[in-house]
Every structure is written in C-alpha cells, then in structure tokens.
Amino acid sequence: MSVPSDPLEPQETPQLRTLRRMVMLLTAVMIGGVLLTFALIVIRLSDRTPTLPDQIELPDGARAEALTIGSNWYVIVTNDNRILIFDKTTGNLRQEIPIQ
Q1: What is the pLDDT of residues 55-71, one digit of tens each?
Q2: How far is the C-alpha of 44 from the C-alpha of 18, rounded, in Å?
Q3: 62 Cβ contact partners less than 8 Å away, ≥ 6 residues apart
Q4: pTM for this entry
C-alpha cells in the first residue's frame, strides 16, 4: 500500500530539477576555479628564491646599504653613495653610478 502524497506539497518539475543541477555544477566549477587560482598563486610566488654568489666583491671601503635583485643582475647601494650594478651569472661589475 502506498502513501498518498500531500496535494498541497509542490511537485518538482523537470525544469526545476535541471535548474538545480545547473546551479550545483556552477557551484562546483566556481569552487574549482578558486582552488586552482589559489594553487597557481602559491606556485608562482614560491618559485622566487633569489640566487646570489657566495661572496660579493665590493670596491675598497664600501659597505652595502641596500640590495635589489633583477632577472640577470643585482644592484648594491653602498654607504659612500654609489650604485653598483653586477651581472648575476658572472659576478662582474657592469656599471657604477654615483649618487648626487
């Protein structure tokens, strides 16, 4: 013997069922997109370990005040008001710029 359904309870139509499935799919895609974006940001930012030579030869009496690292160079600002640009692969001094 089956239980009769309540005539006041709304029945789920095929369109409503399709809409519910589409909303669930959209939710899953959005969650996946957020997770993928987060993972890509973490991967991109974690691969930024700068590499410098073990020892940097500064001119006589100069002390490093600041360091900036580029893709194939690094810059050292010294305490005697000079900017020294070095090649990252060879360690050779590329350019020296006096600060006025």
Answers
A1: 778 888 888 889 888 88
A2: 39
A3: 78, 79, 80, 82, 84
A4: 0.51
